[in-house]
């Protein structure tokens, strides 16, 4: 009996429909008409529409369906003078406005440097646990002391990001 059930399940998996491999994506329309597609949802200031995406296998002889165009979309009548910046979909936000690149972040951690835009987690990775943590007006400061008695203070803003020295 178990062998028959196992054979039925195996046959079902081998003969499964390609529609089972379809996924859903969000179609995001910005106020200026730009359209982006993402699996992570749209920002709150954009219109969001759920769409099914189907990744057809190559060479199956059937055309791949495209996303349906919405009726409220209008044709552009003005030509843009500047090429539009590409929209990055699904980019990870570090919470500090992505002020430094991943490469700069890694280099700073390895060299034990502090750069504006680093998060508290980045500083923890570079220097370890602080000797003293103080908090004032929503801002946090870490203090580190080395073996020679020198101290280093690192200040974080209300978003737990290293700020620019002398600025806000």
Produce a short descriptive summary.
Pfam families: DUF4124 (PF13511). The protein is an alpha+beta fold and 168 residues long. Among the domains are: 38 residues, no CATH class; 55 residues, no CATH class.
How is this structure best described in words?
The chain is an alpha+beta fold. Among the domains are: 20-57, no CATH class; 102-156, no CATH class. It contains three helices and six strands; from the N terminus they run αβββααβββ. A three-stranded antiparallel sheet has the order 2-1-3, with no helix packed on it. The chain has a three-stranded antiparallel sheet with strand order 4-5-6, with no helix packed on it. Helix 2 (102-110) packs parallel to helix 3. It is elongated.
Secondary-structure blueprint of this entry?
Blueprint: H1 2-14, E1 23-29, E2 35-38, E3 47-53, H2 102-110, H3 120-127, E4 132-136, E5 139-145, E6 151-156
Antiparallel strand pairs: 1-2, 1-3, 4-5, 5-6
Helix pairs in contact: 2-3
Organism: Azotobacter beijerinckii
InterPro entries: DUF4124
Keywords: Signal
